Amino acid sequence: MYKNARVGVVVPAYNEEKLIGRVLETMPDFVDVVIVVDDCSRDRTLEIARGYQQRMGERLEVIRHETNQGVGGAIITGYKRAIALGLDVIAVMAGDAQMDPAELAQVIEPVVVGEADYVKGNRLFSGEAWACMPRHRYFGNNVLSMMTKVASGYWHVADAQSGYTAISLHALKVLDLDRLSKRYQFENSILIHLNVFNLPVVNVPVRPIYGIGEESGIRLWREIPAMSWYLIKGFFWRLKEKYVIRDFHPLLLFYASGLILCPLGFLFGLYLILYRLLIGPAAATSALLATFLTISGLQFLLFAMWFDMEYGRNPRNR
Predict the structure, then answer these.
(1) How many distinct helices (H) and strands (E) make up the chain?
(2) How far apart are CA 264 and CA 293, in angstroms?
């Protein structure tokens, strides 16, 4: 227990026989329940986790997926069990030991004191990530984090792909967990859904840990296109759910105008360039029109993003 709050930790694990023991052995004493979700591992992960039940007793629960559901599916299973147990704050620490257990208290603190309903560990805050994170993953993480800012409306979340998180029981009960992505898009998906319900999210600096024997199953060349498409769909779903169904906001008009005028101006400008190269000079007024459409579209988009940021700045007041 931490400050009179019952604490649970969900540990999603897939083929983590080398490191799952390290995660369980270093779990802080204030954690009341550890929920290991073995996502149909093909190695000894399940056997090792169950072996720790003898020394940890009722403090450790091990759940087995008979089919692989993805990291999101494992976390969702753990969340559902945490709801059933009535835990007040639930953290996620992956089975690959990349989350420092010494930082767990600072990760759950904002949820415990009521400052936020969801906490994201920020590995980029100190700058250490640049030195220890593989360059391709660092680049991919930043691209996806920027896209997630737009899709989720949480512009202050710097490290959207971080899996070191904490969530309140209240938030878990509000969310429809079955609608969240069960694959690598889970971290992005939950932010989009949290924003729809105006639940506050904060960043907490955490130390990036790499080079301890972990093996990433993420293939950026495959995941970034799939993630990008998911975020585009999530963006429009969020606008519909939040600003049409639950509350109407004029930012919809700004987004619509920007998304129409900006591409229209760009395409018209491209047409004029091709016309100049292949046929001859175009009218000056046509060039002015293309410029006007593009600039106006960008202004509408920027205003819409600004409205979106301001609307979600103080969700506790709504």
Answers:
(1) 11, 7
(2) 7
In tens, the pLDDT along 199-217 reads 999 999 998 776 554 455 5
Q: The tokens of 170 are what?
A: 């209240």
The answer to whether the beta carbons of residues 106 and 100 sit under 8 Å apart is no
Residue 190, phi then psi, degrees to nearest 5: -70, -35
- Starting at the earlier edge strand, list the strands of the sheet with 89-92: 60-64, 33-38, 7-13, 89-92, 165-168, 118-122, 201-205
pLDDT category at 125 given cuts 50, 70, 90 is: confident
Which of 189, 204, 194, 199 has its CA nearest to residue 147?
A: 189
Q: pLDDT tens for residues 290-309?
A: 999 999 999 999 999 988 88
CA-based nearest residue to 292, from 251, 256, 264: 264
Residue 183 tokens read as 């694959």
Q: What is the pTM of this model?
A: 0.88
DSSP β-ladder status, 89-92 and 118-122: unpaired
**DSSP 8-state symbol, 153:** S
